Structure prediction request, 137 residues.
Amino acid sequence: MTGARRRVVAVDPGPHTGLAWRDSDDAIHAIMIHNRIDDVWRTIRDLRPEVLVVERFATSGRISAPGLETVEIVGSLRGLAWMLDIEYMRRTPAQRYPMMHEARTYMNALKVAHTDHQVDALAHLLVYEALERQGKV
Prediction:
């Protein structure tokens, strides 16, 4: 892809939702919002992304209360993307693995407390950007 990078917000959904994005000045942000889906929606709405990358929830049997909440969050994000005309992309947890080291290194270098959810969201963002550079998305 040539030209300007598309605005992407990557999400690691759940009761502790991680969000990551890159500003137009190339600054990376990774935050975690705890038990406040309305704050997640507001953040995404205010950032006005062109693409919303959301980690897909998977289970191999019974589902816990936090797991059910995650499923509900994923569904709400899909609806939000539709309502705001944002391209919606589901990714599996395994698809973030190629950039986990880079994401963790970046977050550790900030020397501020962070969560695995922020790292996971950032890894999804970095994978998407790599795929975009290769013309694969």
